[in-house]
Specification:
alpha/beta
């Protein structure tokens, strides 16, 4: 199958997780927090399934925000979050260098809060010349309006909004790709709501036990 260069490929992108921490999630008002966690875990599983490099950065872990959320860390046990002081990960040389060291020029961004740390990272990565995709349903803002305004600002600057399920389906693209079929399908069944229920139902109907 001929690859469309406009579509994401597992070998051309990296995932940046920004401040996926409980202390910050407490302030999220743009999305139900359990839904946010569900989506973020699904995205982490997607990155792991397709071999997408993951850079995680945290802030104020000892004084307010806490560690990377355990449910996400459990999916990515080999990812060591890089703690920093600046709200903008791009102003932390260690994080910036870790992102650039992947050699990937397409960056998926997920995190908290949309109005601040997500926006700052995205705008700076765009200025660096990266193509940036904001996984919007794995980002949380203080308010619905604040989240939407931040997304509009990032999109106006050149970022591309997407969702975790679109990322997964875009990377898989063909259900005959057996290498990632079982893992990708399991992610959808566990985290994809009605679509996941439908996949499980179809599997049971086609292959009854």
């Amino acid at each position: 199958m001929t690859a469309d260069p406009k579509l994401l490929l597992p070998g051309d992108c990296a995932l940046l997780l920004v401040d996926q921490q409980a202390g910050l999630a407490f302030g999220v008002g743009s999305i139900d927090r359990q839904t946010l966690l569900n989506n973020s875990v699904a995205l982490a599983k997607t990155a792991k399934t397709f071999g997408v490099p993951v850079i995680a950065s945290t802030s104020a872990t000892k004084v307010y925000s806490g560690p990377l959320m355990p449910a996400i860390q459990a999916v990515l046990p080999d990812v060591q979050p890089i703690d920093r002081r600046s709200m903008n990960v791009w102003e932390d040389e260690t994080v910036r260098e870790a992102i650039l060291a992947t050699g990937r020029r397409r960056l998926l961004v997920s995190g908290l809060l949309t109005e601040a740390c997500v926006t700052f990272a995205v705008l700076s990565a765009l200025a660096e010349g990266l193509e940036v995709f904001v996984v919007a349903d794995t980002c949380g803002g203080l308010t619905v309006e604040g989240h939407q305004l931040a997304l509009r600002r990032m999109e106006a600057a050149g970022a591309i909004p997407t969702s975790w399920i679109q990322v997964l389906l875009e990377l898989q693209r063909d259900w005959t790709r057996r290498a990632t079929y079982d893992e990708a399908r399991a992610i959808v069944e566990a985290h994809g709501g009605g679509y996941g229920i439908g996949l499980a139902y179809a599997r049971d109907m086609i292959h009854p036990s």
